[in-house]
């Protein structure tokens, strides 16, 4: 049930996504079977589910990189027609330009859109401070750790003040300790800028720790299997990871994913007719 103050930001209305068969053979792939989902303004919403269930496809639909085969996807009540500066995407592997320094990597997009220099420079410096990279403006990507590179990508994503942040396993390649630091950083940035965050992860503890709600998808063709609310207030502290009410939600989500995995394993074992 939506609270009166919660505005709907993103709506998947009976979305189905089929990829055509590749030329020369193969079948078409139904990536998303049917997705019905409303995401609130300034919500942190995570998606978990088996590999290949359509999570990245759902993100690409919001980003406007792909379009539904059936149904509609709406942002602020209007259909998504393509990518736009109101939505920023952060991928698992930071796609930084190796020949640009940190500051140039962060500002390249806004610079090319004609934003005045003093405006984007002061915002870039503020963001680099916010992500803990003050003093690294002149460093090149090869001089940074994986976590630092991911911080650059996040600063770059936030520089145009997007109202929607789309994150596809953004911390998946990082070690445990760095990942925890990045999760906390993300919560701090959310507190400051309050974007709507659509976050894909395979790490259930991560999903529960950062999110207001976790959407569990079924095996492909992906549908929403369950919506799990995480009622703990934000800001969230690290010790939450060990609290009973937190681990209870974590186990609930794990159980839902395991149901899908067990089904897939049994299917693989079934004798071929
Ligand atoms: N551009 C594409 N063309 C054809 N098939 C695609 C394309 N993108 C994805 N698919 C297929 O659609 C299905 C869903 O893919 P998707 O990348 O959305 O899954 P995912 O849930 O993000 O998986 P993972 O957890 O492994 O990242 C897969 O079977 C994939 O092979
Ligand atoms: Mg994916």
Topology:
Blueprint: E1 8-19, E2 29-40, E3 44-48, H1 55-63, E4 70-75, E5 78-79, E6 87-90, H2 102-112, H3 117-130, H4 146-158, E7 164-168, H5 176-193, E8 196-200, H6 204-210, E9 213-217, E10 222-229, H7 244-269
Parallel strand pairs: 2-10, 3-8, 3-9, 6-7, 7-8
Antiparallel strand pairs: 1-2, 1-4, 4-5, 9-10
Helix pairs in contact: 2-3, 2-4, 3-4, 6-7
The structure holds adenosine-5'-triphosphate (ATP) and magnesium ion.
Provide a descriptive summary of the structure in words.
This protein is an alpha/beta fold and 273 residues long. The chain has 2 domains: 8-86 and 163-269, Rossmann fold (3-Layer(aba) Sandwich), CATH 3.40.50; 93-161, no CATH class. The protein is built from 7 helices and 10 strands. The protein has helices spanning 55-63, 102-112, 117-130, 146-158, 176-193, 204-210, 244-269; strands at 8-19, 29-40, 44-48, 70-75, 78-79, 87-90, 164-168, 196-200, 213-217, 222-229. The protein has a 10-stranded mixed beta sheet with strand order 5-4-1-2-10-9-3-8-7-6, sandwiched between helices. Strand 4 and strand 5 form a beta hairpin. The chain is globular. The N and C termini lie far apart (46 Å). The relative contact order is 0.17. Adenosine-5'-triphosphate binds next to strand 2 and helix 1.
Quick summary:
By secondary structure, the protein is an alpha/beta fold.
């Amino acid at each position: 049930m939506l609270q009166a103050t919660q505005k709907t930001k993103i709506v998947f209305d009976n979305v189905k996504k089929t990829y055509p068969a590749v030329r020369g053979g193969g079948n078409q792939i139904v990536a998303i079977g049917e997705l019905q989902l409303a995401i609130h303004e300034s919500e942190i919403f995570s998606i978990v589910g088996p590999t290949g269930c359509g999570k990245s496809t759902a993100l690409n639909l919001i980003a406007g990189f792909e379009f539904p085969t059936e149904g509609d996807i709406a942002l602020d009540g209007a259909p998504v027609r393509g990518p736009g500066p109101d939505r920023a995407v952060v991928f698992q592997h930071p796609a930084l330009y190796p020949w640009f320094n940190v500051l140039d990597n962060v500002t390249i997009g806004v610079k090319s859109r004609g934003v005045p220099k003093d405006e984007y420079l002061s915002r870039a410096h503020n963001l680099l401070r916010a992500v803990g990279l003050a003093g690294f403006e002149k460093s090149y990507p090869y001089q940074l750790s994986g976590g630092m590179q991911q911080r650059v990508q996040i600063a770059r994503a936030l520089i145009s003040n997007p109202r929607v942040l789309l994150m596809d396993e953004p911390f998946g390649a990082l070690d445990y300790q760095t990942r925890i630091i990045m999760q906390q950083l993300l919560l701090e940035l959310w507190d400051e800028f309050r974007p709507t965050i659509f976050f894909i992860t395979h790490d259930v503890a991560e999903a529960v720790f950062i999110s207001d709600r976790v959407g569990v998808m079924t095996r492909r063709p992906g549908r929403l299997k369950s919506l799990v609310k995480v009622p703990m207030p934000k800001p969230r502290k690290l010790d939450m990871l060990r609290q009973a009410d937190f681990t209870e939600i974590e186990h609930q989500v794990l159980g839902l994913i395991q149901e899908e995995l067990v089904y897939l394993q049994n299917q693989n074992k079934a004798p071929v007719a």
